[in-house]
């Protein structure tokens, strides 16, 4: 009888000790889990979704900041490739729109703050406008020669882009250097959209991007060419190394310029 009581007492003591150990282990696990929950601010690029095919976004914040919270192993490596911020303009037309910033983060991570929580996005229609090519001559031909009216092929190009930027384009400019030439020049030249002050307009496209510019050149009245110049013209040279063209006719196309500008200093 006494042996049974002693054995039962030992079992009770062992169970109590085991319960105490389990309690301490569980408490340690809880503290460790709580200690592994961290916060972090992540900078992510702002996407705009739902833009109609005939519209384009012309103004929006580049980035937003997300304050996130979660397990250390999920939060510490979190960056803009896994966290997303976006706004939607689905069903909206041209104009400035106030929109709420939405987020997407991995499971187990919470977004507790978005900075800014809302923002404005400007959407414009994509438009195109046909414009005549304006040819500008740079530099001066060989002494005794003068350039005749230049021409371009094609004579006009299409300027395309957001409505507000296309409206600032005043001309489609093609510049060609005629420095030191003594015969007609024909060359492919890039077309640049410029505003009223002559500065380039960013954010628009030109179709086609290049045109063929031809500039006839002739002797001034009463001037005789030198021997070298006569030989060059007889070979059909254009007056520039590696280029040849002859027999081009002058053009009085609208939008071409005749007054040469000094060539840039080397």
Secondary structure topology:
Elements: H1 2-35, E1 37-49, E2 55-59, E3 63-71, H2 72-75, E4 84-88, E5 95-100, E6 102-104, E7 110-115, E8 118-138, E9 145-147, E10 151-153, E11 156-162, H3 163-166, E12 171-177, E13 185-190, E14 192-194, E15 205-207, E16 210-215, E17 217-219, H4 227-234
Parallel strand pairs: 1-4, 8-12
Antiparallel strand pairs: 1-3, 2-8, 3-7, 4-6, 5-8, 8-11, 9-17, 10-16, 11-15, 12-14, 13-16
Contiguous low-pLDDT stretches (5 residues minimum) are 27-34, 227-259
How many domains? The number is 2
Which shape, going by the Cα principal axes? elongated
CATH homology-level superfamily of the largest domain: YbbR-like domain
Largest sheet: 7 strands, mixed
Tell me the CATH topology of the largest domain.
Answer: RNA Polymerase Alpha Subunit, Chain A, domain 2
Compute the average pLDDT: 81
Instruction: Report the CATH architecture of the largest domain.
Output: Beta Complex
What's the Cα radius of gyration? 37 Å
CATH class of the largest domain: Mainly Beta
C-alpha termini separation: 117 Å
Helix content: 10-25%
Strand content: 35-45%
SSE run: HEEEHEEEEEEEEHEEEEEEH
The tally of strands reads 17
Instruction: Provide the structure class.
Output: alpha+beta
Structure write-up:
- This protein is of the alpha+beta class and 266 residues long.
- It has two domains: 37-116, RNA Polymerase Alpha Subunit, Chain A, domain 2 (Beta Complex), CATH 2.170.120.30; 126-234, Beta Complex (RNA Polymerase Alpha Subunit, Chain A, domain 2).
- 19% of the residues lie in helices and 41% in strands.
- The longest helix is centred in the N-terminal third of the chain and has 34 residues, at 2-35.
- The chain is elongated, with a radius of gyration of 37 Å.
- It starts with a helix and ends in a 32-residue tail after the last helix.
């Amino acid at each position: 009888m006494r042996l049974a009581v002693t054995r039962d007492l030992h079992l009770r003591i062992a169970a109590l000790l085991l319960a105490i150990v389990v309690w301490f282990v569980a408490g340690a696990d809880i503290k460790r889990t709580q200690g592994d929950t961290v916060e972090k601010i992540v900078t992510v690029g702002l996407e705009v979704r739902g833009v109609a095919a005939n519209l384009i976004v012309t103004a929006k914040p580049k980035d937003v900041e997300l304050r996130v919270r979660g397990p250390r192993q999920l939060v510490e490596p979190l960056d803009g490739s896994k966290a997303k911020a976006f706004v939607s303009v689905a069903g909206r037309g041209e104009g400035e729109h106030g929109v709420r910033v939405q987020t997407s983060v991995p499971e187990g991570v919470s977004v507790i703050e978005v900075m800014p929580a809302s923002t404005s996005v400007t959407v414009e229609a994509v438009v195109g406008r046909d414009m005549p090519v304006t040819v500008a001559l740079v530099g001066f031909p060989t002494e005794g020669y003068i350039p005749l009216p230049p021409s371009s092929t094609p004579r006009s190009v299409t300027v395309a882009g957001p409505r507000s930027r296309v409206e600032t384009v005043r001309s489609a400019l093609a510049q060609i250097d005629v420095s030191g030439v003594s015969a007609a020049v024909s060359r492919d030249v890039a077309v640049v959209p410029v505003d009223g002050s002559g500065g380039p307009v960013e954010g628009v496209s030109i179709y086609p991007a290049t045109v063929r510019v031809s500039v006839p050149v002739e002797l001034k009245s009463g001037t005789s060419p030198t021997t070298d110049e006569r030989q060059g013209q007889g070979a059909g040279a254009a007056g520039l190394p590696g280029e040849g063209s002859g027999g081009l006719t002058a053009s009085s196309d609208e939008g071409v310029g005749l007054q040469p500008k000094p060539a840039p200093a080397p």
